[in-house]
């Protein structure tokens, strides 16, 4: 199992834009309204912190590889190599480069009309890291940090996310 996790602040930011673009999902007039719903576990898919907590019990399983979105953005070649090794797949240098190119956010966004139709414009917005800084105020940032610590702070997944997000920022 490949478990891809992401900074909860960027998860919230992405889901805010996603839900406001998808009519079946609840939309929010303001970021503040969304933030309250996100933090009070009123998301259609549940609480991201609880999701991480549940997966944490499997983090040491030899059949589970955990990687962060931030790791893949920082060094996609190493990320693809590690994923291929985990699944026992050997890649030539050319195959590796092709996979890295085709799986880049820019490439997927460019091809999204072919692969996802009009839904592609909703799925592929920015693909960046730290976009949360454009929405969160200081109080929201502190509340998110506190919730992170309470739910997953000392866990293996929490430590991995904290390192990728806070130590490399």
UniProtKB/TrEMBL annotation:
UniProt keyword annotations, A-Z: Transferase
The broad enzyme category this protein falls into is transferase
Pfam families documented for this protein: Sulfotransfer_1
Q: What molecular functions are annotated in GO for this chain?
A: sulfotransferase activity
Q: Is the ATP-binding keyword given for this protein?
A: no
InterPro entries xrefs: P-loop_NTPase, Sulfotransferase_dom
Highest rank taxon of the organism: Eukaryota
**What are its E.C. numbers?**
2.8.2.-
Q: Which Gene3D superfamilies would you find in this protein's record?
A: P-loop containing nucleotide triphosphate hydrolases
Which residue range or ranges hold the Sulfotransferase domain?
A: 1-155
Coiled-coil positions: none
Tell me which family the UniProt entry assigns to this protein: Belongs to the sulfotransferase 1 family.
Name the chain's protein.
Answer: Sulfotransferase
Lineage of the native species? Eukaryota, Metazoa, Chordata, Craniata, Vertebrata
Question: Which gene is transcribed and translated to give this protein?
Answer: Sult6b1_2
